[in-house]
From TrEMBL:
Coiled coil: none annotated. The chain crosses the membrane at residues 17-35, 71-92, 113-144, 164-189, 201-222, 228-246, 258-278. Keywords: Membrane, Transmembrane, Transmembrane helix. It comes from Sharpea porci. This is ABC-2 family transporter protein. The keyword Thylakoid does not apply.
Length: 288
């Protein structure tokens, strides 16, 4: 009951619904833009022949997941992360509304509820984003089919399973969970970020730093002739490992998709929980 009464109203506001509608509209616009960029110059008859490829729709979907190929779509989602709901918690804190809630249910219960609704909201919104992307591709560009054709072993169509439908389902669930964990991490940064406007950009800034920074660290480790184990550990900081699992690779490390995913997921969960623990203890000790 607490979750519904105290926090669910944040998602139902007209402003929040408008932000989400604008986000999905921009995602759709990105899909159209990328399609015309890649296929707009191809002759109509030639394109019709190309569309006979039964897995072209899925290939196009996975291509749209690659940050290096569709950076705008990736950054839009990262920018949305703190603005889904966790930024509202910071606003409520500045308005001292959270003091009222904590008095009723305790600081510990407040943080448990806030973390839960932030996590599950991000998961569902990201899941819907993937489904919208598939629907737009199927309706306007290429038919999404799941014919088991001869697919190369290293294809993105069978990253996690030899069955391309199962592979797609696994990817979507892992990616949605990854974005939820990233949102959990960004929310934990409120222990240090007090300015609301700065915090609203933290998803974007964190993604850029953790994206480029990890590749630079791995390259530095390679140049210093450090072992593969050290490079893999450093690569665990690469946030795309959980946001777009299997889509980004480093030339200095082999293909260990699930290892990278699980390692990065656990790392950010641990860091987030440490930050939350410190914040909760500080607020409890200060009586806030």
């Amino acid at each position: 009951m607490f979750y519904n009464k105290n926090f669910c109203f944040l998602i139902k506001t007209k402003r929040k619904l408008l932000i989400l509608l604008l986000y999905y509209a921009l995602i759709v616009a990105c899909i159209f833009f990328y399609y015309h960029k890649e296929y707009g110059a191809i002759d109509v008859k030639e394109l019709e022949v190309i569309k006979n490829d039964p897995v072209l729709g899925l290939n196009f979907f996975y291509t749209l997941q690659q940050p290096g190929m569709t950076l705008i779509k990736f950054l839009l989602t990262c920018l949305l992360i703190p603005n889904i709901i966790s930024a509202d918690f910071l606003v409520l804190k500045h308005n001292h509304f959270t003091d009222f809630i904590k008095t009723r249910i305790s600081t510990k219960s407040y943080f448990q509820a806030a973390k839960f609704i932030n996590f599950i909201s991000t998961f569902l919104i990201t899941l819907l984003m993937h489904l919208v992307t598939l629907l737009v591709i199927h309706l306007f560009f290429f038919k999404i089919t799941f014919h088991q054709v001869n697919i190369p072993v290293e294809s993105i169509l069978n990253m996690f399973s030899s069955n391309i439908l199962m592979n797609l389902m696994i990817y979507i669930l892992l990616s949605s969970l990854g974005f939820a964990v990233f949102s959990h991490f960004v929310y934990a940064l409120q222990a240090f970020i007090k300015n609301t406007y700065l915090y609203r950009t933290m998803g974007l800034m964190s993604a850029l730093i953790l994206y480029t920074g990890s590749f630079l660290l791995v390259k530095l480790a390679f140049d210093l002739h450090l072992g593969i184990v050290v490079r893999i550990i450093l690569y665990m900081t690469c946030i795309p490992n959980i946001l777009v699992p299997g889509m980004e690779e480093s030339v200095y490390i082999g293909q260990y998709r699930l290892v990278h995913y699980l390692g990065t997921l656990v790392l950010y969960l641990i860091v987030s929980n440490i930050l939350f623990t410190l914040r909760e203890r500080w607020e409890y000790a200060s009586g806030r």
